[in-house]
Amino acid sequence: MWFPTKDMMISLAILLLVLLTPCSSSYWNTQNKIKTAIHYSPGIELGPGSVSNRIYYDIEFPRGHVALKGVTAEVVDEAGNPVPLHQTYLHHWGLFRYYESKSKLLTDTRYDPHRVLHMSHSSSNSHILVRNSGICQGIILGQYYGIGSETRGTNTDIPDPFGLEIGNPAEVPEGYEEKWYLNIHAIDTRGVEDKLGCTECRCDLYNVTMDEYGIPLSPSYEGGLNCCYDQTQCRLKKGFQAPKRTLYLRYTVKWIDWNDNVVPVKIYVLDVTDTLKISDTSNIESSDHNCLVEYKVDPCNSESKKDNECLHVKRTRLPMQKGGYVVYGVAHQHSGGIGSTLYGQDGRVICTSMPNYGSGDEAGNESGYIVGMSTCYPKPGSVKIFDGEKLTLESNYSRSTRSHTGVMGIFYLLVAEQLPDEHCG
Ligand SMILES: *[C@@H]1O[C@H](CO)[C@@H](O)[C@H](O)[C@H]1NC(C)=O
Ligand SMILES: *[C@@H]1O[C@H](CO)[C@@H](O)[C@H](O)[C@H]1NC(C)=O
Ligand SMILES: *[C@@H]1O[C@H](CO)[C@@H](O)[C@H](O)[C@H]1NC(C)=O
């Protein structure tokens, strides 16, 4: 007769345990658990040619310890109808996470566009920015979510079993609360003389010679964010009139409650204008980076046209101190952009993201605008970035008869430091 020994019983018990732990199931998914909430930003008042670039603190966002699965957004009018980009150009929106002191609450709640500049990302201020995992300096490009005109047509879903962990009470400093702020930069181009010029923030069209803080701009600065700050005005066609209107950013957040099956991902936002100020890349600090966010694409004259040189390629090499497995990648470009690729140190392609231009009139398909960017969802484990690997970011634009000002070459990367099986093992 066969009697199981005590040892065998224990092994059996362990085996059963392993089989029964949810982690061991490769079929774990969140299909039925995803929660969705649709929120509206405060009203954005815009008249023809006007610009709104504001920060809205303490916006509605999931509270508690959760894993974000995606955030999408679009500009809508008071009736909730999508507003096309040729009427209101969504230059960018950004969603930022911060801790607010419960005791040092600001008594002055008036809108102050400069307030964000006082937000620290380290010290014991009333507000502490919780920036993404890198890699620009200070609070620059520290957002969790947000892009621009391509928002409607760009997938942001984080595949199972991955998620972006937020609201972990163990991480919130004593006496602080986790909150979110939203920055929305919108340009009303109804009736303007030059729609592309207004969206590229060309200084002459805005009649701007000094930046938002009154500092004179260099004559060689043709355009960019310094010329289309809050309440600036782009030149209208003679006699054009249209009423002011109130618009909203409608944003949809998807999340699940945090649980041990979720494999955390980190967000990196890379910028093609970033140059490292140091040569020793073994111990890089955030302050060694110099992300400028925007750049200029020079015009293409008839001579360069002959030589087929109307392509503008910008590259930068960026060391990643910590690597991991790529879960998602997407680029952000402006009109004129024709694609962006992130390469590994050995030249392998980590992700290529291509713009999709609209060809019609309706919201989501506006001709001449980037209405979506293609995304990368590599099979988990198949694309790995090594610790210390120097990546190359490449952003291509087509040059036209005049310069493109204020263009961007930004790359979002979601990286998991562990794979699902490692995470559970
Ligand atoms: C442009 O700005 C200058 C100086 O601020 C001002 O004198 C001029 O009237 C402005 N022109 C237009 C068209 O608004
Ligand atoms: C960008 O241009 C370079 C140089 O011509 C080319 O090798 C690369 O494939 C282009 N990338 C994209 C995404 O078009
Ligand atoms: C965009 O509009 C054009 C012109 O009306 C149409 O041919 C095309 O199918 C539309 N694209 C999408 C994705 O709806």
UniProtKB/TrEMBL annotation:
It comes from Stylosanthes scabra. Transmembrane segments: none annotated. Residues 1-25 form the signal peptide. Pfam families: SURNod19. Keywords: Signal. The keyword Signal applies. This is Stress up-regulated Nod 19 protein.
